[in-house]
Known about the structure:
globular, 2 strands
Amino acid sequence: MAVHVIYRTIVRAIKSAKLMEPFSLNDLIKACPYLDKYTCMVFLSKHKQVNPSETSELFEMDSEGKYKLIRPFKHDL
């Protein structure tokens, strides 16, 4: 899946209140069961703030390992 597809799915789930922030990987899979768990795990890690690969930063991760979308949303969402 392309970055925009997964990201859009997460943003839509947050906006529709199917997914509440901060969220865990398991929370994401419960809200969007059609997403692949492994792909989501890699995606969240790869796009968190201060990621080692320096890819786009889309999420903040708290001390409990839960994620929150960085605002304003990217990719025209």
